[in-house]
Amino acid sequence: MSGRGSWARRTSKRCAAWGSPVAGALGSTPGRGRAFVQRKSLARAYEDIEELLADPEVEAVHLCTPNHLHYRRRRAALEAGRHVLCEKRSAMSSAQAAELVGLAHARQARGRGVLQPALFTR
């Protein structure tokens, strides 16, 4: 999970209720990530997106981050062959969004990487 705000809190709670393990979390700073992991009793705090994506235990990434980070992190996750859930606004422009969709389609053809908008309601 990338992010530690309200969406990340809701996501970690729902994953626990569904029996879906959360490998760890990445905060906006390493300290904030560690604090979130400790509060939620998660296994690991990641220092950066590269460390998160290098972890073989991570199959999917849920991006619960500010909009301006979505494109870069979605792209990195897809390129790493991870499935991606991302809160709304997938990118900052339609060109970026189209690029992400194209990358996801190319990855899906090889059985790696699904791009899915995520929207939880109360």
Low-pLDDT segments: none
What general outline do the C-alpha atoms trace? globular
> What is the string of helix and strand elements?
HEHEHEHEHE
Determine the structural class based on helices, strands and strand pairing: alpha/beta
Distance between the termini: 20 Å
Total number of domains: 1
What does the radius of gyration come to? 14 Å
CATH architecture annotation: 3-Layer(aba) Sandwich
Mean pLDDT, to the nearest integer, reads: 80
The total strand number stands at: 5
Q: Tell me, what is the CATH class? A: Alpha Beta
Enter the CATH topology name.
Rossmann fold
Tally of helical runs: 5
Q: Major sheet, described briefly?
A: 3 strands, parallel
Short summary:
The protein is built from five helices and five strands. By secondary structure, the chain is of the alpha/beta class. It has a single domain, classed as NAD(P)-binding Rossmann-like Domain (Rossmann fold, 3-Layer(aba) Sandwich), CATH 3.40.50.720.
Descriptive tags:
122 residues; alpha/beta; Rossmann fold; three-stranded parallel beta sheet; two-stranded parallel sheet; 5 helices; 14% strand
Your description of this structure?
This protein is α/β, with parallel strands linked by helices and 122 residues long. The protein has one domain (6-118): Rossmann fold. Helix content is 48%, strand content 14%. It has 5 helices and 5 strands. The strands form 2 sheets. Strands 3-4-5 form a 3-stranded parallel β-sheet, sandwiched between helices. A two-stranded parallel sheet has the order 1-2. Strand 1 (25-26), helix 2 (30-40) and strand 2 form a beta-alpha-beta unit. Helix 4 packs parallel to helix 5 (94-109). The longest helix has 16 residues, at 94-109. The model has no long low-confidence stretch (mean pLDDT 80).
